């Protein structure tokens, strides 16, 4: 099933896989991540809301859709796992890490927060790129 030339099932699969990765990433790093934010995992759980998880999943869907669109545009009919991963890595270095670094420096956040958060987005992009590259756009 295609919408605007992009396979919806591939996008959904990429979003679900990267969302699951994100849950595992932040569960494994919950204590150092919370410490970098100046809080505790328990405080964050008490203050958390379901809407944050819904928004996070919608963001994963949008990211997967746009990533597939970029791959389709750049690689034309030759979308591959290798090409997708290289492209996603370049997007991560050029846009994600740079943006997060600037934001975190102006917020006086610790470097550990930048490392944890940008590592998460690297994983997300690599997983989405692998799924999109494997199954095609």
Summarize the structure in words.
It is built from 6 helices and 2 strands; from the N terminus they run ββαααααα. Helices cover 82% and strands 3% of the residues. Helix 1 packs antiparallel against helix 6 (111-135), helix 4 (50-75) crosses helix 6 and helix 5 (81-106) packs antiparallel against helix 6 (111-135). Strand 1 and strand 2 (6-7) form a beta hairpin. With 137 residues, the chain is mainly α. Strands 1-2 form a two-stranded antiparallel ribbon. It is globular, with a radius of gyration of 16 Å.
Please indicate the percent range of residues in DSSP E strands (runs of 2 or more).
under 5%
Low-confidence stretches: none
Identify the overall geometry.
Answer: globular
Whole-Å distance between the termini?
11 Å
Rounded radius of gyration (Å): 16 Å
Helical content stands at over 70%
Which sheet architecture does the biggest sheet show? 2 strands, antiparallel
Give the strand line-up of the largest sheet.
1-2
Number of beta-strand segments: 2
Report the total helices: 6
List the helices and strands and how they pair.
Blueprint (H helix, E strand, L loop, with lengths): L1 E2 L2 E2 H21 L1 H8 L3 H7 L2 H26 L5 H26 L4 H25 L2
Antiparallel strand pairs: 1-2
Helix pairs in contact: 1-4, 1-6, 2-6, 4-6, 5-6
Keywords for this entry:
137 residues; two-stranded antiparallel ribbon; globular; 6 helices
